[in-house]
Design a protein that fits this description.
The protein is of the alpha+beta class. It contains nine helices and 30 strands.
Length: 589
């Protein structure tokens, strides 16, 4: 099929039909990423809902008591009133018997039901909704987004394969239909905005839900969703969740018309850009938004005339409740510098750090010598390399914060004693795999927490897709230079993340646990004594994440020998297990 495509492309140069040839799979879809089988439940790629939390890369149900305590009552199909939307959705996440009915308290107002009528099989037909005392068919001008929600509610896990099919309808008068407006992540149409409007038989929506028999429709130009559904390749990476599980939008190299491309390789609808809610995990959809603000709510194809005819809104906009609940989740402050200096263009070949430039940088001292670097991540916790520390001599270590010059100490310097050292249980001193450790600082006798003056924690990344090869990042430390002379001053340098580092370190580089960074000429690099220190990268919201821990390398400051760092994102769950999730989780808590 692909060979035929390219032959046609060569033969039809200059002919008008060439303009209609579809994009082939490889154009926009990242094949390597597809092997991970990411879906809307993969917090490596998307944010979890307020009623879910991110555990080992997947969104799992929260327990109801873990929800915010806000009082905005909602009613379930079981007749029970819950304190808020999050608590109800948490119960629904755990038990399929609980579903959303309406906002407000329950007053015996009936139930919600959805069925397909006048189809040729049980998986197709006109969509009829019963909500309270209202029974009506859904209006035709809906999208695959709403159709997926309807089919999923009926038990068709692949959602819909057709939302425009026409079905024969009995010769009876129809005066109203329900316009549905969904975001696509709801589990029932009752959570979408349902609006009653005038209609006739020609206005009614038909749908064909995905079944196992739908696989007969596939061809060489089809894309297989993670849920088993097939869609045309041309519908991938366009910002529209055609699969129903979003797997067609999570492994993209770019977006087709109608989609906004997130740096993490995700396509979202352009209407989500600058809508006041961060949908890309890096936040790049909410930057440079002056004059671009949008409501973020699609009109589902309504014409101005149809909108004027709409009379009665039957359901609340529960997407607004979801946003409200997100605003109540715990927030931490991290990764924001105190300085206002202009970033300079370029530890070996670096620049001397100024006050406030790297407020998460710490120095580990053993005896009278600078032993290693470290990264403050909040509370009483410091990250460092496993090869820098030993458990049984924790009492011998001191953690110095705020050090800019080791010879002439500045007044901001503080010295912290160490309570315990935690080394990753699978650390290998031979291969440097899992070269990561935690240092817990001792609390002051009169305080319950550690308060480090003039120190700001670096953010801890939860996803490996926050930054990519080619991104510019910063390494800092008080180690030695290329001729292995102590430099005594905190220095920093700009380096570039490097992909495919195995070509430099054959059989020694482990992609899951390690990352590489450096410069083409080797002029900026970490060196001896920098071990355990930070490699930080800045996201679209100007927050710095500790992307790597200085681990190992060869011939520091030489071309073709980039520095190797422990990939911190790979250890988010390990870190949160020891320090407590609320200390380091900005999202997905």
């Amino acid at each position: 099929m692909k060979l035929i495509y390219y032959l046609l492309l060569l033969l039809c140069v200059g002919l008008s039909f060439c303009k209609t040839l579809p994009l082939v799979h490889e154009d926009l879809v990242d094949e390597k990423c597809l092997k991970e089988k990411y879906t809307h439940q993969s917090c490596e790629k998307v944010f979890c809902h307020p009623w879910e939390k991110c555990v080992e890369g997947g969104c799992v149900c929260k327990l109801p008591y873990q929800c915010p305590k806000a009082l905005r009552p909602v009613c379930s199909t079981t007749g029970r009133t819950y304190n808020n939307y999050c608590q109800l959705k948490s119960h629904a996440c755990i038990s399929a018997k609980t579903n959303f009915l309406s906002n407000g308290t329950c007053h015996g107002q009936g139930h919600f039901d959805l069925s397909l009528k006048y189809g040729y099989t049980e998986s197709e037909g006109l969509v009829e909704v019963k909500l309270g005392n209202t029974t009506a068919f859904v209006c035709k001008n809906w999208s695959i987004t709403e159709a997926n929600v309807a089919c999923s509610y009926l038990g068709f896990k692949g959602g819909a394969i057709d939302h425009k099919k026409i079905f024969h309808f009995p010769d009876v008068e129809i005066t109203d239909c329900l316009q549905a407006n969904c975001r696509g992540l709801e589990t029932t149409l009752a959570e979408c905005v349902l609006t009653k409007r005038k209609a006739n038989r020609k206005d009614l929506a038909g749908v064909v839900c995905h079944t196992q028999e739908s696989a007969d429709l596939i061809d060489d130009n089809s894309f297989q969703c993670v849920n088993g559904k097939y869609i045309p390749v041309q519908k991938t990476c366009d910002g529209i969740n055609d699969c129903g599980d979003q797997s067609d939008e999570l492994c993209c190299k770019g977006c087709r018309s109608g989609g906004f491309f997130c740096k993490s390789g995700v396509c979202i609808p352009k209407t989500y850009q600058c809508n006041g809610e961060m949908d890309c995990i890096q936040g790049d959809d909410e930057v440079n938004c002056e004059g671009l603000g949008r409501s973020g709510v699609q009109d589902a194809g309504n014409s101005e005339h149809e909108i004027q005819e709409q009379a009665e809104v039957l359901s609340a906009n529960m997407d607004e409740d979801r946003k409200f609940l997100k605003s109540l989740l715990p927030k931490i402050s991290c990764g924001v510098k105190n300085d206002t200096h202009v970033r300079r263009k370029r530890i070996v070949g670096g620049q001397v750090a100024a006050k406030g430039e790297f407020p998460w940088q710490v120095t580990i001292k053993e005896g009278e010598r600078i032993h290693c670097g470290g990264i403050y991540i909040g509370g009483c916790w410091v990250l460092t390399a496993a090869h820098c520390v030993r458990r049984n001599v924790a009492h011998r270590y001191q953690v110095w914060t705020g050090v800019l010059d080791w010879i002439k100490l500045n007044k901001e310097v503080q010295v912290q004693r160490v309570n315990q050292v935690i080394i990753h249980e699978h650390y290998s001193g031979t291969t440097y795999q899992n070269d990561i450790a935690l240092i817990e600082l001792k609390k002051h006798q009169t305080k319950t927490t550690c308060e480090l003056m003039n120190t700001v924690p670096a953010c801890v990344p939860w996803s490996q897709y926050l930054f990519n090869p080619g991104d510019k990042c910063f390494v800092s430390g008080l180690g030695r230079n290329e001729v292995e002379k102590n430099i005594y001053k905190l220095k920093w340098g700009e380096v570039q993340l490097i992909g495919n580092c195995s070509k430099y370190y054959s059989n020694r580089f482990f992609e899951k646990e390690m990352i590489c960074a450096g410069t083409d000429d080797g002029s900026t690099d970490a060196c001896k004594g920098d071990s355990g220190g930070p490699l930080v990268c800045m996201n679209s919201n100007n927050q710095y994440y500790v992307w790597g821990i200085v681990s190992w390398g060869e011939n520091c400051g030489k071309p073709e020998f980039p520095g190797v760092y422990t990939k911190v994102a790979n250890y988010f769950d390990w870190i949160s297990y020891h320090v407590g999730r609320s200390l380091i989780s900005q999202y997905n808590v």
